[in-house]
Amino acid sequence: MTSPNPSNIILYHYSYSPYAHKISYYLSLRNIPYHQVPQPPILPRPDLSNLLGIIYRRIPVLAIGNTVFINTPLILETLETKYPTADAASGTGPALGGGEEAKEWGRWSDKVFRSAVACLPTSLPVMKDPKFRNDREDFSGSSYQPDKVDANRAKALRGVEEGFKGMEEVLKDGRDWVLGGKEVSLGDVNAVWVLEWMINLPGALAGSNISKETYPKTFAWVGRFMAKVGKKRVPKISAQQAKEVILSEQKEDFGVEIQGGGLVKVAPTDTGKNHPQVGVLRKRENGKIVLEVMPPNERRTLKVVFPEEGFEVKEVARGEAKL
Asked: Which of these three, 229, 255, 278, is where a domain ends?
């Protein structure tokens, strides 16, 4: 079994990213030690693009040694399989488990999130920032202009409330956790983040019927989960320090075999597709795409791993991009 090494697990995120919460909650629940490199909520992110050559725009990304993992389900799957058992030396707890049923909760929460993100209160400071609105329009392809967001808010809130209704129905039999076990599972991690985000985002539920009184079991479950997560201080390191950690460990394999390939670009098939990641294709099997990326002004390289699901790979035409 591999023990988590706090010096080479690095999370790039920003504090109010709900998808980043999934990863930080998971790491806290299992007491996996790591470092963080906080990022701005909008592009550019030179800590990633300039220092690591990672131009893919979604947050979070997680580095383990020389390998950077993209996409939250892949990050969670990697942490579950790479560190499957408890480790007394580091204090890490066992994998949370949940199998396919836990993954289904991930798909459920992604659906609820599509409604949740559409009802962001236009009174929030970030929603008044033209740079933020333009960034999110580039990301999503949808308008973030206040009048359009407000016009769609009632419909979006109905979608969010369907999420609360669904969860209340699941919990009505008295279970503490969504999969019915005695302990929190990956199913809870995959489900809770979007509802917790809505509950704690100022003004997000204004004008809806969603409250502790209406959905008592769901609110209690969110509270139980957050009590389990607790409040842990996560050490920060500089982007330059993180770069050196990642590039200095390039001889470690981490289960990724380097093979010959051509220059390609990888992009999501839904949102964030305007910023594809460019690299040399080294492996494409078992549901994963592995690129080798050379940062600017560097001769050392890192590996960047994407899931096949939800991403597409295209060859880079001559002169289109430089690695």
From this structure: 229
